[in-house]
Design goal:
The protein contains nine helices and eleven strands. The chain is α/β, with parallel strands linked by helices. Strands 5-6-7-3-8-9 form a six-stranded mixed β-sheet, with helices on both faces. Strands 2-1-4 form a three-stranded antiparallel β-sheet, with helices on one face. Strands 10-11 form a two-stranded antiparallel ribbon. Helix 5 packs across helix 6. The longest helix has 18 residues. 38% of the residues are buried.
Length: 258
């Protein structure tokens, strides 16, 4: 039986007494790249935060590689995380390399200087994401796509087994999105990672992932792509018009007259 990276049974999560996630049962095998889809407010980010140990379950059981997520979080390893808004101040005077080195703080401690080995790991991860030439550049002076690569490199500095990406392609154009998806797939193979990736880009995700989870408070679909119309409509809660070309769904956009 394959090892489970994530094992969730009967999960409920609440905000101010209101359920955000209801009766979530989810098994994710080690080594899988899983896309998590759903409308705004569906609980996607909440699910990630429960897996990360940032939010305690209201009910149910969550295990990551057999352990309670809270314990893994305090160890500062095993899980690498890219949040939705990783850069609160784009003009903060710090270099790309310094941002990536922040991923080592969970191992070396906030009050200790990064060692030569820590810097070597950071530079190696910049090479993995294809931007070693940007190491000395201020983080606010690189493009949106390059910034996402920086933050993925930072997450890799944890040396994780599980990589959690919350909308890594948000605000990127179509070409930059494809580049990020290709890179994440390559990193998964090279580093033997399990990857959870939240996205709204159904077509892009379907081309690159092993499994798709459609969530809207509950899990409506968990399967390998492709997903059919009924699964999408069940998760998104409305009529969805998609053109299926081969195995990949594409959103049909209404043509507007000039």
């Amino acid at each position: 039986m394959p090892e489970l990276a994530v094992d969730i049974r009967g999960l409920w999560a609440f905000y101010n007494g209101t359920p955000v996630l209801e009766e979530i049962n989810l098994e994710i095998e080690t080594g899988k790249l899983v896309g998590i889809l759903g409308p705004n407010g569906a609980g996607k980010s909440t699910l990630l935060k429960v897996i990360l140990g940032l939010i305690a379950p209201g009910r149910g059981q969550v295990r990551v590689f057999g352990e309670v997520p809270r314990k893994l979080r305090h160890r500062g390893e095993v899980v690498g995380y890219l949040p939705q808004r990783p850069l609160s101040n784009p003009h903060f005077p710090v270099s790309v390399l310094d941002v990536v080195l922040m991923g080592r703080y969970g191992r070396v401690g906030l009050l200790r200087q990064p060692s030569r080995r820590d810097r070597e790991i950071a530079i190696r991860n910049l090479e993995r994401v294809g931007i070693p030439h940007l190491a000395a550049r201020p983080i606010g002076e690189v493009s949106g796509g390059e910034q996402q690569r920086v933050f993925i490199a930072r997450a890799l500095c944890v040396e994780p087994r599980l990589l959690v990406l919350d909308e890594p392609t948000v605000s990127l154009d179509a070409c930059a999105q494809d580049d990020v998806y290709d890179m994440v797939h390559r990193l998964k193979e090279e580093l033997n990672l399990t990857v959870l990736m939240v996205s709204h880009d159904i077509g892009g995700v379907a081309r690159h992932v092993d499994d798709i989870v459609c969530i809207n408070r509950r899990i409506h679909v968990h399967q390998a792509p492709p997903i059919g119309r009924l699964g999408l409509e069940s998760a998104f809660g409305c009529s969805v018009e998609y053109l299926f070309h081969g195995q990949i769904p594409h959103r049909v956009v209404k043509i507007h007259d000039d």
